């Protein structure tokens, strides 16, 4: 049974009231922002810096300690520390800063318009594909490029092609190389291959993206390994594994936030004359939360509260957990399904979607579109 059948149909008045209550949660949170939020994000910055330094030192030290039988323990701890640093920088720092969550601090290092994060993709491209297209047209087919990322058929409403038979394998490769998928997403390579984008336009789009990719490759796979001298291969392998771990974790969290069993997609006409209440409803029905506590919240960049993130993308993510209590109560009062579950449960549903929709399947029949909810 899909979420649409479990949620109550809202009248126009209900939708206005629903939106007003959720706007109220935002207003009360904005009024509380201050020093504690600034202190929190600066602690994250320090944690990332110290974890990276510690991880790189241990990677450098692993081979000299081999004679004492300490190579693998030292190397593994170094890789894990570096991976955690990269995860935190990617999710709790970079993603949230780029959303402008800390612009109110007037700190140039935390400015959402200028921050450049430590992955292969440029922040500018992410601002367009994610901040604008995904958050504006969340789960609207043909407008939100994050629906399958042009590689995967995850919803039955997506037109099936024989290519999708390969998607169980493609999904694994995509997870391993996720930062590179993000890096090329805005280039729309499929249009170029189909001859819909000229070579000149592709070269223009590739120039900044290529520079960023090259810079990341040189930093992680040339500079730091060369600094290790005779331990080049050990450090190179450590950097590769740390990046892959970061990629897999990011992939899992993002897919769990958007592609669980109850997540819905919407036709383009659903956003025509969309009201504030309809917008909140679309964000709610296209998002999924994860339950797991404070450690999961921090390691996921607080995207364990994907619903709250889609409601309030420009508010500091460390506030989402407390906001979620009230948001869930509001959804319950209006009879709306609040999609949450453990990480294993939600990711299990994602895996099922990837496997099931690799094969031909019929679109789901829902009780009503978002636009008819107000009738």
TrEMBL record:
Q: What's one Pfam family here?
A: FA_desaturase
Could you tell me the keywords of this UniProt record?
A: Membrane, Transmembrane, Transmembrane helix
Family matches, as InterPro entries: FA_desaturase_dom, Fatty_acid_desaturase
Q: Does the keyword Transmembrane helix apply?
A: yes
Identify the CDD domains for this entry: Delta6-FADS-like
User: Which residue ranges traverse the bilayer?
Assistant: 57-84, 163-182, 221-242
Q: Does the keyword Nucleus apply?
A: no
**Domain Fatty acid desaturase, chain residue ranges per copy:** 72-340
Protein known as: Acyl-CoA desaturase
